Amino acid sequence: MGTPDNLAEYVRCDVEDLTVYVARALLEKLEAGATEQPFYIDGYGRYSLILSEPWGGEV
Protein backbone atom coordinates (compact mmCIF):
# COMPACT_ATOMS: atom_id res chain seq x y z
CA MET A 1 0.00 0.00 0.00
CA GLY A 2 2.12 2.94 1.20
CA THR A 3 1.50 6.64 0.71
CA PRO A 4 -0.69 8.24 -1.98
CA ASP A 5 1.01 9.21 -5.24
CA ASN A 6 -0.02 12.85 -4.86
CA LEU A 7 0.30 13.83 -1.19
CA ALA A 8 -1.06 17.33 -1.90
CA GLU A 9 -4.49 15.76 -2.49
CA TYR A 10 -4.60 14.16 0.98
CA VAL A 11 -4.51 15.12 4.65
CA ARG A 12 -2.36 12.86 6.82
CA CYS A 13 -3.85 11.69 10.13
CA ASP A 14 -1.82 9.72 12.67
CA VAL A 15 -3.90 7.40 14.84
CA GLU A 16 -1.88 5.53 17.48
CA ASP A 17 0.48 3.39 15.35
CA LEU A 18 -1.55 3.83 12.15
CA THR A 19 -1.25 6.53 9.48
CA VAL A 20 -4.40 7.35 7.50
CA TYR A 21 -4.52 9.58 4.41
CA VAL A 22 -7.93 11.21 3.86
CA ALA A 23 -8.68 12.78 0.49
CA ARG A 24 -9.06 16.56 0.65
CA ALA A 25 -12.04 16.24 -1.72
CA LEU A 26 -13.79 14.11 0.90
CA LEU A 27 -13.02 16.53 3.73
CA GLU A 28 -14.27 19.47 1.67
CA LYS A 29 -17.73 17.89 1.74
CA LEU A 30 -17.86 17.80 5.55
CA GLU A 31 -19.84 20.55 7.19
CA ALA A 32 -18.07 22.76 9.70
CA GLY A 33 -18.52 21.28 13.18
CA ALA A 34 -18.63 17.67 11.99
CA THR A 35 -17.05 15.19 14.42
CA GLU A 36 -17.00 12.08 12.25
CA GLN A 37 -16.81 10.88 8.65
CA PRO A 38 -18.73 7.65 8.07
CA PHE A 39 -17.58 5.15 5.43
CA TYR A 40 -18.40 1.60 4.37
CA ILE A 41 -16.18 -1.36 3.55
CA ASP A 42 -17.89 -3.92 1.35
CA GLY A 43 -18.37 -7.14 3.26
CA TYR A 44 -17.31 -5.58 6.58
CA GLY A 45 -19.89 -2.89 7.31
CA ARG A 46 -20.05 0.73 8.41
CA TYR A 47 -17.22 2.52 10.18
CA SER A 48 -16.52 6.10 11.19
CA LEU A 49 -13.40 8.18 11.15
CA ILE A 50 -13.77 10.05 14.44
CA LEU A 51 -12.19 13.50 14.41
CA SER A 52 -10.33 14.57 17.57
CA GLU A 53 -11.73 18.10 17.17
CA PRO A 54 -14.83 19.32 15.32
CA TRP A 55 -14.05 19.94 11.66
CA GLY A 56 -13.32 23.63 11.04
CA GLY A 57 -14.38 23.60 7.41
CA GLU A 58 -10.94 24.35 5.95
CA VAL A 59 -8.72 21.83 4.20
Task: Describe what you observe in this structure.
With 59 residues, the chain is mainly beta. The chain has one domain (7-50). It is 7% helix and 41% strand. It contains one helix and four strands, in the order ββαββ. The protein has one helix at 24-27; strands spanning 10-15, 18-23, 36-41, 45-50. The strands form two sheets. Strands 1-2 form a two-stranded antiparallel ribbon. The longest helix has 4 residues, at 24-27. It starts with 9 loop residues before the first strand and ends in a 9-residue tail after the last strand.
Distinctive features:
single chain; 59 residues; mainly beta; two-stranded antiparallel ribbon; two-stranded antiparallel sheet; 1 helix
As a whole number of angstroms, the C-alpha radius of gyration is 12 Å
Q: Can you list the strand order of the major beta sheet?
A: 1-2
Distance between the termini: 24 Å
Uncertain stretches: none
Structural class: mainly beta
Percent helix among the residues?
under 10%
Shape: globular
Strand count, sense and barrel status of the largest sheet are: 2 strands, antiparallel
- Tell me the number of helical segments per DSSP (H or I, 4 or more residues long): 1
Q: Can you write the helix and strand succession as a string?
A: EEHEE
Strand residue content: 35-45%
Number of strands: 4
The chain-level mean pLDDT equals 84
Question: How many structural domains does the protein architecture include?
Answer: 1
